[in-house]
Design a protein that fits this description.
single chain; about 200 residues; alpha/beta; four-stranded parallel sheet; 6 helices
């Protein structure tokens, strides 16, 4: 049968970039909340990219970026979290981390930010004149505060035979969302499979 890649967030970024660079040639790619850009304006993005490149360049690459730190279970709260509107799945996820603290990740470092800004710029450059690539379904979590919703829409519009579904009410982790949101995602996923 067809080979379909399913990737989320930064994995979605890597999958999209690998497809645009023709490093991989699956029959289709489905991404949820892919990292195309951070949710900031153009000037803020330029300034942040310059600062992160400078910080990484002077040896601060392994230090946390502004407002970032190690994972702290005491700061984990469901209310106003950016990941999911489903309390049960939120509690299950953070319960798993509490029992297995070695799986937890801290915030982003200056080095990660520098590399991420460079890679996002390269992805957007590749999308301006793409090679002929497989169909892609971009599943955008419309209540995402982690990544740019608008950048996902712009990318899906820029590349022929790429489509977008908008998951209204979904936060950054559609797979951890309410049953209704997950059902909309899986219906779109099944529809996409029928086209490849």
């Amino acid at each position: 049968g067809p080979v379909i890649l399913l990737a989320h967030s930064m994995g979605g970024h890597v999958g999209i970039r690998a497809v645009l660079e023709t490093r991989i040639k699956p029959d289709g790619l489905v991404t949820t909340a892919p990292m195309i850009a951070l949710p900031m304006g153009r000037l803020a993005t330029m300034g942040s990219r310059i600062i992160s490149n400078l910080a990484a360049g002077v040896g601060l690459g392994k230090r946390y970026g502004p407002g970032m730190s190690d994972h702290d279970p005491a700061r984990v709260k469901f209310d106003n979290n950016p990941l999911t509107g489903d309390r049960e799945r939120f509690n299950r996820f953070y319960g798993l981390l509490a029992r297995n603290p070695g799986l937890a990740l801290g915030g982003v470092t200056w080095g990660w930010l520098s590399a991420a800004f460079d890679s996002m710029a390269e992805l957007q450059r590749l999308a301006r004149d793409p090679a002929e690539v497989c169909p892609v379904l971009i599943c955008t979590a419309m209540a995402d505060r982690v990544l740019s919703v608008g950048a996902q829409s712009a990318l899906s519009d820029a590349v022929q035979n790429w489509t977008q579904i908008r998951l209204d009410g979904a936060r950054h982790e559609p797979m951890m969302e309410t049953d209704a949101i997950r059902a909309r995602f899986w219906a779109a996923f099944d529809d996409f499979l029928r086209t490849v």
